[in-house]
C-alpha cells in the first residue's frame, strides 16, 4: 500500500505539496475496503516529521522520517492559507464530485459481484431493470455532475435493495432451517 504525505490546506491532493512517499509492505491479501490503516504524524523540535503507518488487522507497521528539504516562509504559509480560502468553493465541489464517483464505482462493482453469484435467483424484469440502472450510472460517472451521479447511484440502490434483501433472507432461512433459536 502506497502512503503519500502532502503538506497544505487544500481539499485536493493535487493542490498541495508532496513531502514524501513510502510503501507499507507485508500486508496479507484482503478484500477491497478491509485493510484499516492508522497513520500517525510526529514533528520533533528540529522540524523532522516522522510518519508511521500501521495496518490494524495484521499489525504490519512502517515509518519514515521526512527531513525538511526547504522551509516555508511566512509569505508561503500565508499564500497557502489564502489559496485555501479563495478556492474553498471549487475545492469542495471537486471533492464532492470525486466522492460521488467513488461511491458510484463501488456500487457498480458490488452489484456486478452480486449478480454473478445470484443472477439465477432474480427475475428477468429485475435483471433488465438492474442492467438499465447500471448502464445509466456508468454513463453518469463519465460526466462532471455530482447530483446526476448521486441520483443514478440512488436509483440503482432502490432497484437492487429489494431483491438483495430477499436473497439474503432466503439464505438466512436456509441456514437456520431445522435449528431453534
Mean pLDDT: 89
Strand pairing plus helix content: what structural class? alpha+beta
Strand content: 15-25%
**Structural domain count:** 2
Stretches where pLDDT is under 50 for at least 5 consecutive residues are none
Annotated CATH architecture of the largest domain: Up-down Bundle
Radius of gyration: 23 Å
Biggest sheet descriptor? 3 strands, antiparallel
Task: Please provide the count of β strands.
Answer: 5
Count of separate DSSP helical elements? 4
Shape: flat
- Overall helicity: 40-55%
Strand arrangement in the largest pleated sheet:
3-4-5
The span between the termini is 43 Å
Order of helices and strands: EEEEEHHHH
Indicate the CATH topology of the largest domain.
Substrate Binding Domain Of Dnak, Chain:A, Domain 2
CATH class of the largest domain: Mainly Alpha
Question: What is the topological layout?
Answer:
Blueprint: E1 2-7, E2 17-23, E3 37-43, E4 49-55, E5 61-66, H1 74-86, H2 88-118, H3 124-141, H4 146-176
Antiparallel strand pairs: 1-2, 3-4, 4-5
Helix pairs in contact: 2-3, 2-4, 3-4
